[in-house]
Amino acid sequence: MSEGTTVEPAELRLEAFRGELIGYCYRMLGSVFEAEDAVQDTMIRAWRGLDRFEGRAALRSWLYRIATNVCLTMLGSAQRRARPMDLGPAGTARSAPGEPLPEDVWVSPIPDALVAAGDPAEVAVGRESIRLAFVAALQHLPPRQRAVLILRDVLSWSAAEAAELLDTSVASVNSALQRARAALADADLGGDTLRPMDAAQSELLERYVTAFQEYDMDALASLLHEDVTLNMPPLPLWLRGHADIRDWMLGTGSGCRGSRLVPTVANGMPAFGQYRPTGPWALVVLDISEGRIREITNFLDVERLFPLFGLPMRFEGRTALRWNDRGQAGEGA
Questions:
Q1: What is the b/e burial string over 240-259, where b = at least 16 CB atoms within 10 angstroms of the residue's CB?
Q2: pLDDT over 90 for what percent of the chain?
């Protein structure tokens, strides 16, 4: 070793890949909590054999191989995660919410900060590929097809690299990719292409916050697509159409009157911590298309999700919207 040469500590060599591995495992598993567990398992396994790797490229491929095997094992005994829209027909304004279903039924949200770091172009691709509709669609694919599509179309690995990682042939990878793309071709993968916050989107969100906090459901309905959907995991009920959503919010959902919203970002999309007068209620994620809101997802598991997103468990007076040009939320006054 030449004088002045330093050896990067093993922990830092592994930790440099944690963010991208969480993003990969999240797309594979549909749960941020399972993704974190899978990456931690990957790190432990890698630590035990780290001394056999010296090159960064080899280390990255090896970590992805371990992470893939961990995910495939986890998926072998798990049911497919879904969204309420996958499980049954839409309800109406008069429908009961239904009994909450277990956490392992649902696709969960993920903070952008866990996965969206690095080159701005890579961040943009990464945010598109963690939007809720895309991650939910991935869960319909067989696990190995899912891995191939993520490696090839999201992470831009070559067919040869993917084949080596999966211990299969290039022909097999290409075939799996073709089938996976065909399976996703008819899926509704979300609204507009995610882009830096512009004046029009900022104005739309300001109007949404004002309408919701004033509980002006007519004003709020005017911001929604005619076929907008509302879903509320872990409750199985979901609604379609601004008329049913308006009427439901004025009826069964009227406990939301008087709520306050705090901005954040989830799955590359604008999101809010919602606080009812009685306390924290939901992480609200919005999908926007053509200047209107096309989907509202209210994740009700605030005990786990609010700390993950850095949201306090009681409202602290932050209501104004501030996003920077990377789509990150900041505090308002």
A1: bbbebbbbbbeeebeebeeb
A2: 69
Q: How far apart are the first and last CA of the chain?
A: 55
pLDDT average, residue stretch 46-57: 70
What is the per-residue pLDDT for 2? 42
Return the structure tokens found at 178: 């073709």
* CA 76 to the chain's CA centroid: 22
What's the rounded Cα separation, in Å, for the pair 14 and 316? 37
* Identity of the residue numbered 163: A
Q: Measure the CA–CA gap between 35 and 327, rounded to whole angstroms.
A: 23
Instruction: Return the closest-CA partner of residue 33 out of 132, 108, 116.
Output: 108
Two structure tokens written together for 225: 């697509």
The vertex-17 CA angle with 283 and 116, nearest 5°, equals 35
Distance CA 280, CA 283 (A): 9
Q: Measured between alpha carbons, how far is 186 from 309 in angstroms, rounded to an integer?
A: 32
Rounded to the nearest 5 percent, the helix, strand and coil shares of the chain are 50, 15, 35
Dist CA 317 CA 333 (whole Å): 8
For 81-131, where are the alpha helices, taking DSSP H only? 84-87, 112-115, 120-128
For residue range 136-145, list pLDDT tens digits in order: 999 999 999 9
- Alpha helical stretches, state H, 77-216: 84-87, 112-115, 120-128, 132-138, 143-149, 159-166, 170-184, 199-213
Q: What residues form DSSP beta bridges with 124? A: none
Model pTM score: 0.88
Residue 197 reports pLDDT greater than 90: no
- For 211-237, how does the pLDDT look when each residue is reduced to its tens digit (9 = 90+)? 999 999 999 999 999 999 999 999 999
φ/ψ bin of 293: left (φ > 0), alpha (ψ from -120 to 50), beta (otherwise): beta
* 315-318 LR contacts (CB < 8 Å, sep 24+): 315/260, 315/262, 315/275, 315/280, 316/262, 318/262, 318/263
